[in-house]
Structures are given as structure tokens and as C-alpha cells.
Design a protein that fits this description.
single chain; alpha/beta; Leucine-rich repeat, LRR (right-handed beta-alpha superhelix); 29-stranded mixed β-sheet; 5-stranded parallel β-sheet; 15 helices; 47 strands; 18% helix; disordered N terminus; transmembrane; repeat; LRR_dom_sf; Toll_tir_struct_dom_sf; leucine-rich repeat
Length: 959
């Protein structure tokens, strides 16, 4: 990482910096990141990766394993490699349409055994190779339209045994060979707009298929030959614009297409041979499309209506201007008649008289100026007159239409309604009157249409609602009044609407809601008051909360109130909304919210409050809404998210905080949101120092929360990093992995314990010797120049051998020979530390006599005395140490006392146990040893020379 991209270090001393870097680098090898962050995609809560319109040139490699659906449409991918999808075994849907894919390597889908839907529309495939789709054993839908496919390899679809939908439209196929060879369960086959001129059944398969729908439209067929019963289940056949004049129609047996019920032969410009084609479907055809026919339309309709099974006829886009009585007189069995998108201006009164079974009549997108009289003679249940030029509805225009269930009069030029206009529509359930110019209702809904369930009056010119305007609509569930000019809501406006569940009042000019306005709407579940002029300027409680009676309301939308002054919500504004789940108060110019605002909405699940003028929010604002799952608080100028710490939002999984003013995200805030799945923080400017170090680590490594668009987060501070990408900053020097350090400490403690145990067991005496060697060295260095010998010899012995020392050694050496000896029980200075007494005695004597026995070897203090004497021996290079063995000790018993063994190999010693026969000789040798001085080691007067320790060596030499 470059120097200018490194974060400033804070909170870490320079002396420990190197160690921390080492530990952190080591940690990166032990615990690689397993993050959940995409560079150019986002993952929805339904585990769908949205990657469209991102200019990808290759398949992205950072999509997480949990994803089940990927949308990569509208990119620049030109090739699919066999490694692109190997890490996505759970994929169910893959959308690759609108790319530039021309090559799909064999084995690309080898691990996609779960994939069900594959969309490759609008790419550049020219040929389907063998093995291209290997692995897709569960694929049910394959889309390949708008490519350049010219040929299909014989085994192109070999793996697609479960395929039910195949779209090959808008390619360059010339025949249908190899399509159905390996797809026995195919139900829908679309191959429109190819270059197929001849349809021969033998090209598809020699056995029957499960095909239900076949689309051969826009192919300009010259031959249609069906010589085998391969389509026993075919229901829909589309030949729109796909037959040339003079087509050769060869169907050997009419039973071959006896199951077809829906036929589209739109775009045929000649009636020649038309009857022959229709006779093929004479016993089964129910739905026929004759759109874009132009010439000979009347002849074609007459031929069609002779089919006894025909119940639905669609005749659109034929430029019909007038419907005469003889045009449809043979269509006696029609149930649905669609004459939409023509230029009809007039319909003769008896045009529909013979259509006694007619149920649905569609006359939309014509040029009618009034409701045709002809429809009064029908018993239709649905009438579509939308997108015409009707400006007046008379009292008798809809007379006697008691069977009508659905009436569509939207997109006309209606100005007002009359009280009598709907008087006979006693069974009407759905009425569409939107996008007209209605400014007055005139009581049209006060005593008619008791069964009406949906009423759409949006985008009209209504200014006011009379009291009891809808009082007869007891069954109404949906009332849409958005886009009008209503100014106020008063008590009685909604009388009678006891079953209303959805009320839309968006985009009006409502300034005030009077007391009791919604008192009759006991069943209301959704209320939309967005984009009005509601005025509330104080947080003080109001006497009549507007929604107090709406205990069943689940969704309240009041965002984007159009006013200039800053405002506030009364603290009891939401009183009564105990069942509220969704609340939208965004863009209301609110400057604050009272801490008790949400006390009345304990079941709130989704809250939109973005684009207001808050600078801070009360810490306990969200405490009453513990069930909140989605929170939108963007564009609020928030300087911190710390208010979320006390909210305890334990179920929050979606948080949007775009374009606020905070620059540091504290760790406790994110830790408090333990269920967060999706975090959107786009448009914030971050501080790029160690204050955000943990946040960067968390964004990259956490595998639960997706931080949307994190790769584009920018630094705002310090100035030298402004504009840099936040995730490119080096934070390794800022954070310490406590867990890893604990691991290292624990490992070191274990290793140290093992080392100490090993040393204690095997190297104890080496360490003890080294310690006392050091003490002796320090003493010798300190007293080297001012040392004087006070005694001739210091006697080192064990208390159990004191009898021999006092009874034998002391009388001989002091009384008879005149030597002055130092004995610890007699000559050590009281009150002085024992180690100082030992050291002073050894260095204050010319020599040291060690009286060695088994007890001596096991004594800790005796061991220390001989250690110090040994150091003096090697330091001064003089014969200052005399060893006297009181008993024979085998070599194996000396093994633990390695220092004693080394001394025996290089030093003279005397053995009392072998002096029984010549005791005088023993004392003479001891006297001579005490007299010898200034002899270098190795050249001193030798008293006894032996080849091993006492008890082992047999030969002795005498002086």
C-alpha cells in the first residue's frame, strides 16, 4: 500500500508497532476474509443478485454462495467460461439477456444442477453446440430469442430432459430438426420470426410430445404438413403473419389438431384457402384471433363464426369504422368479443342482437362518443368502453344492464355524473372512471350499486365530497380518489363504507382532517394521504387525533406534504394505530419528532422517514417499536447513528441511511444491530483514519450484512485522502485482533509451561550451577583486589557427618597440625544472609575441604557450597579444593551429580573408607594438600591418583 493511502496510527505506541504488524500479518494467513460484499452488484433479501447495467465484460467472481438468482442483463459479457459458475451450485435463475455472448464453453453449466430458468435472449450465439448445456438436468425454462442461431447440433438439448419452455424466436433457423429429440416434456415451443418456410412434422419427432403451445408466427410458411399425430396435447397454435398466400396446408387427419382450442391467424391478407385451414380445427376451436386482416374481413368473420365451438373472437387493429347488424349475425355462440383498437364511431342498434351468449364485450380504444344502444340488448357481465370520446352518460345509457359486473369508462371525457346513471347496475362490482374530467358526482353513488367492491375515480376534477356521497356502497373495499382537487375531509364524507379496506387520497390539496372523518372506516387497512397540504406545526398533543378510530389500519402513507413552512407532528398524531405495520412520513419538512411519537404503534414493521430536516433523533425514539424490520432514514443530516444504540432493534434487517452527515461509524452501533442483512450508506463522506478502521474490516469480512455499493464510499477527511476510495485505505496498522493475540499468548504460555517442565526435569542442576556460578563471579570481581585469607580451609559437610568432622577432622587438623578451619556452626556471622556467609567463608579461606557422603550429595546447601568452590577453582586456576569421601559411592549413584563426576575426572581426592589400614598416611596426605599452594591446575602435588570414584577404582599410587 502506498504511503499516502495509509491511515494515521492512533492508540498504538511505536515500540509495539512492529510486533502488532507481525501479528496482524500472521493473522491474515491464518484467518482469510470470508466477506459478503459485492463490487458492482447488490443482493436482495430474497437472495437475488442484481448486476444489470454495470458494463461487465466478464462474469463477476464475487457473488456469494447464498445467491439463488442472478440478473446480469444489459452488460457486455462476450463469453461464458467453464469456471464462471463453478462456485454457484445453488443457482435457480440466471438472466443473461442483452449481452454480447457468442461463446459458451463446454462444461460451463456442469455444476448448475439446480438451475431452473436460463435467459440468453438478445445475445450473439450463432450455433448451439453439443455439450453447451450439459449439467442443466433440472432446467425447465430456456430463452434464446434475438440471437443469430442458424443451426442446432443433434444433441444440443441432450441434458435438458425436464425442459418445459423453449423460446427460439427471432433467430435464423430454417427448419425444426433436432429441437424435440431430447426434450420429451416440452410444453411451450416459441419459434417466431425465423426463416422457416416449410413445417414438416417428421422434422420434430416421430413420436408424440407433450407440447401444449406452438408459436410459428412471422415465418412466412409455404407448407404446413402434419402427417402424424405428434401433438395430442396441443392447445394453442400461433400462425400470426406466418402464412403466405397460397400456403399448402396438409393435415391428413383432422384429429391431429383436434385439441387446439386457441388459434391466431392474424395478418392473413387473403381468404383463399382460409376455410380449409379452419376446417382442420372445426370441432375444437374456441378462441380465434383475426387481427390486422384488413381485406375480406367480413368474409373471414362469417367463415369463422360457422365453427360451432368458437366462443371467443378477437378482431383488433382492422380499421373498422362501423359495425353493421349483418357483420356478426352468425356468431351466435360467442362468449367474448373483442373489437378494441379499431376506429369505430357507430354501432347499429341490432349489431349484437343475435349474440345471446355474449358475456364480455371489449370496445376500448375506438372513437365512440356515447354508449352504444346495442349493448342494452345484451346480458354481458363485462363492458370495456375505455379510451373513447364519451363525454356524457345519460340515465338510460346503461339501462337494464343488471348482469353487468365490470364497467370500464376510464380515459374518456366525462364531466359529471347524474344521480340516475347507475340505477340499474345492481350487480356491478368493479367500476373504472379514472382519467376523466369529472368535477361533480351528484349523488350517483348514494343509492345504487350495493355490490360494488372497487371504485376508481382518480385523476378527475373533484373539489369537494358531499356528506354521505358513498353511503349506499356497503360492499366497497377499494376507493381511489387520488389526483383530484379535494381540499378538506369532513365528517360524513365516508359514511356507509364500513367494509372499505383501501382508501387512496394521494395528490389532492387536503389541508385539514376534521374530527370523525374516518369514524365509519372500521375495516380500513391502507390509507394513502401522500402529496397533500396537511399542516401541523407543533409537537403538542392535539384534541382529536385524526386516526384514532382506525385500529385495523396496517399501512399509512402521508409523505411529501406540499408546504413551505417547517413542521412537526403532534406527539399523539398516531394515536389509535395499534395495528399499523407500514408508516411513510418522508419529505414532510419535519424538524423533530417527539420521543413518544411511536408509543401508539407497537406493531410497526417498516418505517420511511427520509428527506426531512432532522439533525438528530431522540435516543429512545424507536424503543416502542421493537418489531421494526426496515428503516429508511436517508437525507436527514444525521451526524451520528448513536441513537440506534438504545433503540434495541433486535429484528431490524434492512437499514437505509443514504446522504447523511456522519463520518464515523462506531462499532457498538453495528454490534447492536445483530440481525441486519442489508445496509445502504451511499452518499456519505467518511473519515479515513483509525476511527473507521474496524468498520472497514467489518464491511469486508462480515458474512451476514451486505453493505450496498461499499466500493464507492469516499474519504472526506483528512484532506490529503479526500476523494480516495474508503475500502482502498490500509487499516492493518490500526486494529488489533484481540482473539488472535489471545491465541498467541495462550500458545506461548503452553510452550513456556512445557519448556519449564522440561528444564525442571532434565536441566535443573545446570541452571542451579549457572546461577551460583554467576553469584561467585560477581563476588570475586568485587573483592578480588582487597581479599585476605582469614582461614586455612573452609570445611563443607552435611549435618549428619558432623560427628566425624568434630571427632576426627577437627582434632587432627587444628589441635595436632595447627590449621585454622572455618566451620559453619561456629564461624558464620549471625544475622548475615547464609549465601553471603558461605561466599565470604570460601573466598576467605585458602582452600575448601568438601566432606562427601551420600547425605552430602542430597543436601541443597552442600551443593551450593561445592558449586561456589568449583567456580573459584576454575577462576583462580589454583589448587583450592580438596575432596574427602567418607564412604564408597558407585558411579551410577553419582550420575545425577554431573558436576561431582566432572571434578572426580580432573581433581585429586582422599577416601576415608580406604584409610583403615593406614590412617596416618591419610592425615599426612591431607596435611600436604593443605600446604600446597600456587600450583597451577593440572600440575599440583598429587596425593592420590585413581581411575574412577571410590568403590569403583582398585589401583592407587602413592606419593
Amino acid at each position: 500500500m502506498k504511503t499516502e493511502m495509509a491511515m494515521p496510527i492512533r492508540g498504538i505506541s511505536l515500540c509495539s508497532f512492529g510486533i502488532l504488524c507481525f501479528l496482524l500479518n500472521l493473522n491474515s494467513f491464518i484467518s482469510p476474509a470470508a466477506g459478503y460484499m459485492l463490487k458492482d452488484c447488490r443482493v436482495t433479501r430474497t437472495t437475488q443478485a442484481i448486476c444489470q447495467k454495470n458494463s461487465f465484460n466478464a462474469f463477476p467472481n464475487d457473488i456469494p454462495l447464498i445467491v439463488t438468482s442472478i440478473d446480469l442483463s444489459q452488460n457486455n459479457i462476450s463469453k461464458l467460461n467453464n469456471a464462471d459458475l463453478k462456485n454457484l451450485p445453488n443457482l435457480l435463475r440466471l438472466n443473461l439477456k442483452c449481452n454480447s455472448i457468442s461463446i459458451i464453453e463446454s462444461g460451463t453449466f456442469f455444476v448448475q444442477m439446480s438451475l431452473e430458468v436460463l435467459n440468453l435472449n438478445s445475445n450473439r450465439l450463432c450455433k448451439l453446440e453439443e455439450g453447451m448445456f450439459d449439467g442443466l438436468v433440472n432446467l425447465t425454462e430456456l430463452r434464446l430469442s434475438f440471437n443469430n442461431i442458424q443451426t442446432l447440433a443433434p444433441a444440443s438439448f441432450k441434458s435438458l430432459s425436464k425442459l418445459t419452455f423453449l423460446d427460439l424466436g427471432h433467430n435464423k433457423l430454417r427448419n425444426l430438426a433436432n429441437i424435440l429429440n431430447h426434450t420429451p416434456h416440452l410444453q411451450i415451443l416459441n419459434i417466431p420470426a425465423n426463416k422457416i418456410c416449410n413445417f414438416h412434422s417428421w422434422e420434430l419427432s416421430n413420436t408424440s410430445t407433450e407440447l401444449v403451445s406452438l408459436d410459428l408466427s412471422q415465418n412466412q410458411l409455404m407448407v404446413f404438413s402434419l402427417t402424424a399425430h405428434i401433438f395430442p396435447n396441443l392447445k394453442l397454435l400461433n400462425l400470426e403473419g406466418g402464412m403466405k398466400n397460397g400456403i399448402v396446408w396438409e393435415v391428413n387427419n383432422t384429429s391431429y389438431l383436434s385439441g387446439v382450442s386457441k388459434l391466431d391467424i392474424s395478418g392473413v391478407h387473403s381468404s383463399l384457402g382460409f376455410q380449409e385451414v379452419l376446417e382442420t380445427f372445426n370441432s375444437s376451436l374456441m378462441y380465434l384471433k383475426l387481427n390486422h386482416m384488413n381485406n375480406n374481413l367480413r368474409v373471414l368473420i362469417k367463415i369463422s363464426c360457422k365453427i360451432p365451438s368458437l366462443t371467443s373472437l378477437e378482431v383488433r387493429n382492422n380499421s373498422i369504422k362501423v359495425i353493421r347488424s349483418d357483420m356478426l349475425h352468425l356468431c351466435t355462440n360467442l362468449n367474448i368479443l373483442d373489437l378494441g383498437t379499431n376506429e369505430i364511431t357507430d354501432i347499429s342498434d341490432n349489431s349484437f342482437q343475435s349474440l345471446r351468449k355474449l358475456n364480455i364485450l371489449i370496445l376500448k380504444s375506438n372513437r365512440l362518443t356515447s354508449v352504444p344502444y346495442a349493448i342494452r340488448k345484451t346480458e354481458i357481465s363485462k363492458l370495456d368502453l375505455s379510451f373513447n370520446n364519451i363525454n356524457v352518460l345519460g340515465c338510460y345509457d346503461l339501462a337494464n344492464m343488471t348482469c353487468l359486473r365490470i364497467l370500464q369508462l376510464n380515459e374518456n371525457h366525462l364531466l359529471n355524473l347524474k344521480e340516475c346513471v347507475f340505477k340499474d347496475l345492481v350487480n356491478l362490482k368493479h367500476l373504472w372512471l379514472q382519467n376523466n374530467n369529472i368535477y361533480q358526482l351528484n349523488g350517483a353513488f348514494q343509492k345504487n350499486m350495493p355490490k360494488l367492491q372497487e371504485l376508481y375515480l382518480f385523476n378527475n376534477q373533484l373539489i369537494d365530497l358531499d356528506q354521505g356521497e358513498f353511503k349506499d356502497l356497503n360492499s366497497l373495499k377499494i376507493l381511489s380518489l387520488q389526483g383530484n382537487k379535494l381540499k378538506e375531509l369532513k365528517k360524513g364524507n365516508f359514511n356507509g363504507l364500513s367494509n372499505l379496506t383501501n382508501l387512496n387520497l394521494e395528490s389532492n390539496e387536503i389541508e385539514e382532517i376534521h374530527n370523525g372523518t374516518f369514524s365509519d372506516l372500521k375495516a380500513l387497512q391502507k390509507l394513502n394521504l401522500m402529496t397533500n397540504h396537511l399542516k401541523y406545526r407543533s409537537e403538542e398533543p392535539i384534541e382529536y387525533p385524526p386516526f384514532a378510530e382506525l385500529s385495523q389500519l396496517e399501512s399509512l402513507l402521508i409523505s411529501t406534504q406540499r408546504r413551505r413552512l417547517k413542521s412537526a407532528l403532534p406527539q399523539n398524531f398516531l394515536k389509535g394505530l395499534t395495528n399499523l405495520s407500514v408508516l411513510n412520513i418522508r419529505s414532510m419538512q419535519l424538524t423533530s419528532l417527539h420521543p413518544l411519537t411511536f408509543n401508539y404503534t407497537p406493531n410497526l414493521n417498516k418505517l420511511y422517514m427520509s428527506s426531512n430536516d432532522f439533525t438528530d433523533l431522540p435516543d429512545n425514539l424507536f424503543s416502542p417499536i421493537q418489531k421494526l424490520k426496515s428503516l429508511y432514514i436517508s437525507r436527514l443530516n444525521l451526524r451520528s447513528l448513536d441513537f440506534l444504540l438504545l433503540a434495541h432493534l433486535t429484528e431490524l434487517d434492512f437499514l437505509q441511511v443514504r446522504k447523511n452527515a456522519f463520518s464515523v461509524i462506531r462499532e457498538p452501533v453495528m454490534q447492536s444491530l445483530s440481525t441486519l442483512v442489508y445496509l445502504d450508506m451511499q452518499g456519505n463522506s467518511f473519515t479515513c483514519n483509525c476511527d473507521n478502521a474496524w468498520f472497514l474490516k467489518w464491511v469486508k469480512n462480515n458474512n451476514q450484512t451486505q453493505v450496498y455499493d461499499a466500493y464507492n464510499f469516499e474519504c472526506n477527511y483528512p484532506p490529503d485522502l479526500k476523494g480516495k476510495k474508503l475500502l482502498e485505505i490500509d487499516v492493518e496498522s490500526c486494529t488489533v485482533d484481540i482473539g488472535f493475540i489471545c491465541y498467541i499468548c495462550t500458545a506461548c504460555a503452553v510452550i513456556m509451561t512445557i519448556a519449564v517442565s522440561f528444564t525442571k526435569h532434565f536441566l535443573q542442576w545446570h541452571l542451579v550451577y549457572t546461577y551460583y556460578l554467576m553469584l561467585a563471579f560477581l563476588y570475586n570481581s568485587k573483592h578480588k583486589d582487597k581479599r585476605a585469607h582469614q582461614y586455612d580451609a573452609f570445611v563443607s559437610y552435611n549435618a549428619n557427618d558432623e560427628g566425624w568432622v568434630l571427632g576426627e577432622l577437627l582434632p587432627k587438623l587444628e589441635d595436632e597440625q595447627g590449621w585454622r578451619l572455618c566451620l559453619h556452626h561456629r564461624d558464620f556471622q549471625p544475622g548475615k544472609p547464609i549465601m553471603e556467609n558461605i561466599t565470604d567463608s570460601i573466598y576467605g579461606s585458602r582452600k575448601t575441604i568438601c566432606v562427601v557422603s551420600r547425605d552430602y550429595l542430597q543436601s541443597e546447601w552442600c551443593s551450593r557450597e561445592i558449586q561456589l568452590a568449583s567456580f573459584r577453582l576454575f577462576d583462580e586456576q589454583k589448587d583450592v579444593l580438596i575432596l574427602v569421601f567418607l564412604e564408597d559411592i558407585p558411579m551410577q549413584q553419582l550420575s545425577p551429580y554431573y558436576r561431582m563426576r566432572r571434578l572426580l575426572k580432573r581433581k585429586t581426592y582422599l577416601s576415608w573408607s580406604r584409610a583403615d589400614a593406614h590412617p596416618d598416611l591419610f592425615w599426612e596426605k591431607l596435611r600436604q594438600a593443605l600446604e600446597t599452594q600456587e600450583h597451577p591446575m593440572g600440575e599440583h602435588l598429587r596425593l592420590t591418583i585413581e581411575d574412577g570414584p571410590p568403590g569403583e577404582r582398585q589401583d592407587q599410587s602413592k606419593v
